[in-house]
């Protein structure tokens, strides 16, 4: 009889999982660089590069001025010329300042050179609301999903933060890697041995049979909390963590929806043209139409005001209510 | 009297910390203001200082261990020979000050 | 001291002019940004670059690509969307590239290629191979934030990059003086402590001399340089844009044509006679006719190509 051997795990903070992935990849490949504000001796705004500057020095880890457009552009140029830069953009809202280089140049470089050049770069950024107001809280990953040539990933656990970052640093095109501020305080187990998490592969975090709940990033915790709440009513949720938004793993979602017959999509960003809408449409193209509810932020900016912020962002009780309503349909 | 030191809810959102370093051994005496232990969160170090005098009697978590907020880390007493209670018997919380850096 | 072979410079400029004239004459020539009047900037600049260097440009890329030595027939095929183009016809004028020829590529978002070029320069710096990067952009790009961000970082990091502003004095219809507050565009480089100079971009030998000085500065590791070349645009902004200047103005501009001026100088000093000059014009026309024939004969990509090389 064969026993599946459970890999040895080490508990670590989210930031440590990122640090470890970057350290390993920088050690393996001298072309991996880090660019961004406060990434050097300071170790990153979230300490996600702690200790790396001492190891790899100022040539490979460069503090930049507040200049997102040029920083992403310089990274794209260095990527096109053979390097693998990781650019740290502190808040996802500031990514907009670098869209030209990222979207007009890096994402199109392979296409426009007929495969001659590519821009292997990782833009690491941080999404989500945590009391910082209308221009420091947004989740705009759905915008990025529609850009041909761009890959988008959003881990919800330190293990995936580690494995997705490693895959991102080896990817031969631009990747936007999205952390969530509210995930940082929670540690998690990561494999002790080197492990990559492939892109385009979702993960079922909780098995269930009544409804499929699909989410990513911090909203995975809300989804799992909601699943726990409705379990007391005898409702069984299949909870899927997308992990990778582009490419999307519709196989896993459609397979689940075939079993459960219902879909709830949950995200912290806007539902209009959102991640959930895209997931649902692609799923129903396979399964035919099924009862579906989408939940996201209210159609309003996310204030730093705690009452308004909380009103705007989905929470577990609201998701639980929506699950019950979906089952009652 | 026996006192317990538990993981303080020092940083909002933090549910679990890692022990960084104890600043004393079993038998060490602490005066108010003395640094007892440093705890590590995702972004900060929490210095836990004695808010009252006490003798460290038992350490329940070693550096590198992960501990949930509220989990008991150590026992203290007023006098060195006060017998320790068995297991997880309830104890009064020792007064502490903490500083997040 | 000459920095450029005067006859070779004339030949290169004639070739660019003949190429663009042939392209413009073709009935279906697409959306093109021509560089007639700006040939001396491209040819003078390129004379200072070595084989290990890279040139990047904004969208007005045809002249610079040809000056850099990209094969004219492949450029023509690329511009016409044919498979024989250096990027299989999918990049076009705005985005074509040929890194093997030292032309790292165009990026037609105004100001957009400047930071990219700095990144290529950072790669050269890290490789330590002695190569430098030149980025050519118009006066229109000088109002773009990406330029200012990049100038700062390039100066701070002493990147091996030469910023070359081809100041043709018009951004579509907006005059340079109406758009930009600085006295000289090279002042933008000087602000960041760079080697900076403004030269007459209609004088190919003057551009070449300044470009050689700038390249030496950059190659010596002294940090970036900023060269402004004041030129003229003899055609409208693009092949689909309305001409905003009067016939009289355009006729007057023709008298400043950098090719005419250089040819006249070579005739005046006895380097060339009328017959030799005419022969050079005919040679250029013949070469471009061959390039056009190659491009015409090259097939379009199949529709299935649309999904290739996306990720």
What is the CATH homology-level superfamily of the largest domain in chain A? Thiamin diphosphate (ThDP)-binding fold, Pyr/PP domains
Strand content of chain A: 15-25%
Average pLDDT for all residues of chain B: 92
CATH third-level topology of the largest domain in chain A: Rossmann fold
Report the CATH architecture of chain B: Beta Barrel
Biggest sheet of chain B: strands, sense, closure? 5 strands, mixed
Helical content of chain A stands at: 25-40%
Ends apart, CA distance between termini of chain A: 46 Å
Oligomer: heterotrimer
Q: How large is the radius of gyration of chain B?
A: 13 Å
Mean pLDDT score of chain A: 96
The most extensive interface between chains reads:
A-C, 39 and 39 residues
- Looking at the structure, the CATH topology of chain B is OB fold (Dihydrolipoamide Acetyltransferase, E2P)
Q: Give the low-confidence spans of chain A.
A: none
Number of strands of chain A: 14
H-E string of chain A: EHEHEHEHEHEHEEEEHEEHEHEHH
* Strand residue percentage of chain B: over 45%
Biggest β-sheet of chain A, characterized? Answer: 7 strands, mixed
Keywords (chain B): Lipoyl
Protein name (chain B): 2-oxoglutarate dehydrogenase
Cofactor (chain B): (R)-lipoate
Domain Lipoyl-binding (chain B): 2-77
Explain the overall architecture:
The complex is a heterotrimer of chains A (329), B (101) and C (311). Chain A is an alpha/beta fold and 329 residues long. Chain A is built from eleven helices and 14 strands. Chain A has two domains: 9-191, Rossmann fold (3-Layer(aba) Sandwich), CATH 3.40.50.970; 203-328, Rossmann fold. In chain A, the strands form three sheets. Chain A has a seven-stranded mixed beta sheet, sandwiched between helices. Chain A has a five-stranded mixed beta sheet with strand order 9-11-10-13-14, sandwiched between helices. Chain A has a two-stranded antiparallel ribbon with strand order 1-8. Chain B has a single domain, classed as OB fold (Dihydrolipoamide Acetyltransferase, E2P) (Beta Barrel), CATH 2.40.50.100. Chain B has a five-stranded mixed beta sheet with strand order 3-6-8-1-9, with no helix packed on it. In chain B, a hairpin with a 4-residue loop joins strand 4 (35-40) and strand 5 (45-50). Chain C has a single domain (6-271), classed as Thiamin diphosphate (ThDP)-binding fold, Pyr/PP domains (Rossmann fold, 3-Layer(aba) Sandwich), CATH 3.40.50.970. Chain C contains 13 helices and eight strands. Chain C has helices at 6-25, 39-46, 62-68, 72-79, 92-95, 112-127, 145-156, 176-179, 187-191, 204-219, 247-254, 258-268, 274-297, and strands at residues 54-57, 103-106, 133-138, 161-167, 170-171, 174-175, 195-200, 225-230. Classes of the chains: A alpha/beta (329), B mainly beta (101), C alpha/beta (311). Chains A and C meet through helix 3 and helix 4 of A and helix 6 and helix 7 of C.
